[in-house]
Amino acid sequence: MAKYTRLRYDVTEVPLADLVREVMGEEDLEGLAASDRVATRETDQSTPYHRRFYDNVDVISPVYRTLVHRLLGDEVDAVYIQRIPTFRVHLRNSVAVGSWHRDRDFGHDPSEVNYWVPLTRAYGNNTLWIDEEPVHAEYGEVIVFDGANSWHGNVVNDTETSRVSMDFRTLPRSSYEPNDRKSISYGLPFRLGEYWDTV
Hints:
Blueprint: E1 5-8, H1 16-24, H2 48-55, H3 57-72, E2 79-82, E3 86-90, E4 113-118, E5 129-130, E6 133-134, E7 141-145, E8 152-153, E9 163-172, E10 196-197
Antiparallel strand pairs: 1-7, 2-9, 2-10, 3-9, 4-7, 4-9, 5-6, 5-8
């Protein structure tokens, strides 16, 4: 059985989905058009939806940081957070992440903790899988898991809805070691002020 913790937050106080709908210019995130091809590791971050999200990260960042404060509470001063959250779109007939992986296989520190934040319903084959188990979640829930060391990924979405989510990682400040390895999603070095930040 996959190991994870389920947290909840108030979506009226941290309206992430509303903000993402606004910056993407999309009324219905679950209704995003089906894909005509299955994404790969090289293409899973290159849809027009991703461009709109990352082009507006300065608008999203304050609400993202509010979420981090709500989730971490007093622990926020003991960790570094991923400066720019990773955006995921699991379109129908495609995948959100091009390959099953453990984050450590891509240069991430083994002591990192992953926070997966669905902005739509996540169920059936449109959801995140951890250690070969689908993790169902609703908007307003956050799944916390050991993505550095646990196999995770997804399968082709054969549901009737697209899934939109974001995720981020934390790193204990005591484990931080500056290095020049780069994140696979957007090529940022795993350094403070680049990939990592304080809240």
